[in-house]
Each structure stands twice: as C-alpha cells, then as structure tokens.
C-alpha cells in the first residue's frame, strides 16, 4: 500500500534570469505551472500545495483555478528553502508520510516518474528518494516526514541540499530512462533549447 505523499510545487521566485514568470511560460498548450499540476493530479500523490511569492496576483489572475491549492511565501527573497518551509507548514503532518518537492523551472515531469518515486518510498525505509539519469540526480525529490524538522531548521544559505548531504547514505536513487529529470529551464536560452522543440512536436 502506498504511503501518503503530498506534492509541493515551488513557484515563488522572481524569475530574474528568465525575465518573466516561469510559472506562466507556455508548454504543450498550457503553462509550466498548470502542466506540473496536471501531472501531479494524474499521479498517486495525495494532494498538492503551490507556493507563490513574488507578485502572486500576476499568476493567480491568469490561473484562478489554482488559488485553493496556493500558499504565499512572504519571505521568498530568502531563497528556495523558505518556499519549501512554507509548503511544509501548510501540510498536516498527522496525515502526511512525506512530501515531493517540485520546482516550477523543472517542468518535464510525468505521472509514471511520480508514481515510481512513491512506490520506492512506500516499499523501502529510505527517507529520501531521488531520480537519477546516468548517475546524475534530478527532480522531483521526495522527503520522508521524519526529515521535516531538519528541513524547517536548515540554514537558508545551504538549503535542502544540506539535509540531503546529511543523509546521503540513506538516499534511494531511482534510475530513470530520460534526461528530462535534469532539465532546468532558468533562462530564455534554456527555454528555446529544451521546451520549444518539444512543444512544437506535441
């Protein structure tokens, strides 16, 4: 039986290098954020929380249907960890066995990957499950509830990476057959390279 895992989508940043909100970038006839939400909803995740921060009204005016799942990180300038912490605080730890962290600039996720990570987590005793492609770690990343206190106490300078490093001997790496888990769309150049060709062929 699957453990109950919640999804947290981090979409709070200023998108400075992209020059416009990454959450609203077009992909497969929709937006980055909607695409991730649709993949999550088609998976075995129990729920999803969307963390916004910089000018959330711009995103919610465009995507009002997502408002019920949204929480606002007023400390988004402190970095990605502050958004993850905001998402964790929005979960009910009594009914949540773990969380899966999605980044809005890593939009190429699919339900089979999400379900594979949940399956590995449910069957094993590993507190962290990470997909990898040819020995390179990708996203999304799954954290067990036992690590929530450490994530909430982590230094903003180090972020969740410090918690991953602390438990590196206990990580389960799910070998995946696609480099899409590595693709980070952080600049216009990355968007043109990785997303435009895929969207055009869909």
Describe what you observe in this structure.
The chain is α/β, with parallel strands linked by helices and 202 residues long. 33% of the residues lie in helices and 21% in strands. Strands 1, 4, 5, 6, 7, 8, 9 and 10 form an eight-stranded mixed β-sheet that branches. The chain has a two-stranded antiparallel sheet with strand order 2-3. α2 links the parallel β4 and β5. The longest helix has 14 residues. It is globular, with a radius of gyration of 16 Å. The termini are far apart.
Would you kindly provide a brief summary of this structure?
33% of the residues lie in helices and 21% in strands. It has seven helices and ten strands.
Keywords, separated by commas or semicolons:
single chain, 202 residues, alpha/beta, 8-stranded mixed β-sheet, two-stranded antiparallel sheet, 7 helices, 33% helix, 21% strand, globular
Helical fraction equals: 25-40%
Beta content: 15-25%
Largest sheet: 8 strands, mixed
- N-end to C-end Cα span: 34 Å
H/E topology pattern? EEEHEHEHEHEEEHHEH
Given the structure, what is the number of helices? Answer: 7
Low-confidence stretches: none
Overall geometric form: globular
The overall pLDDT, averaged over residues, is 96
Radius of gyration: 16 Å
The count of DSSP E runs of length 2 or more, i.e. the number of strands, is 10
Category from helices, strands and their pairing:
alpha/beta
SSE layout and pairing:
Blueprint: E1 5-11, E2 26-27, E3 30-31, H1 32-41, E4 47-52, H2 56-62, E5 70-72, H3 80-89, E6 98-103, H4 111-123, E7 128-133, E8 136-137, E9 141-144, H5 148-153, H6 160-166, E10 171-175, H7 188-201
Parallel strand pairs: 1-4, 1-6, 4-5, 7-10
Antiparallel strand pairs: 2-3, 6-9, 7-8, 7-9
């Amino acid at each position: 039986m699957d453990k109950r895992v919640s999804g947290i989508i981090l979409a709070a940043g200023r998108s400075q290098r992209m020059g416009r909100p990454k959450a609203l970038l077009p992909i497969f006839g929709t937006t980055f954020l909607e695409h991730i939400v649709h993949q999550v909803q088609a998976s075995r995740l129990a729920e999803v929380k969307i963390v916004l921060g910089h000018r959330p009204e711009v995103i919610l005016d465009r995507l009002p249907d997502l408002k019920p799942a949204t929480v606002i990180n007023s400390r988004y300038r402190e970095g990605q960890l502050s958004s993850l912490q905001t998402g964790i605080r929005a979960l009910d730890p009594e009914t949540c066995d773990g969380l899966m962290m999605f980044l809005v600039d890593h939009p190429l996720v699919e339900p089979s990957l999400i379900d594979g990570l949940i399956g590995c987590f449910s069957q094993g005793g590993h507190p962290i499950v990470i997909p990898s492609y040819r020995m390179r770690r990708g996203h999304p990343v799954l954290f067990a509830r036992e690590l929530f206190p450490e994530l909430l106490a982590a230094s903003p300078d180090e972020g969740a990476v410090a918690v991953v490093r602390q438990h590196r001997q206990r990580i389960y790496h799910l070998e995946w057959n696609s480099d899409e888990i590595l693709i980070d769309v952080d600049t216009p150049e990355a968007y043109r390279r990785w997303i435009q060709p895929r969207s055009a062929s869909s």
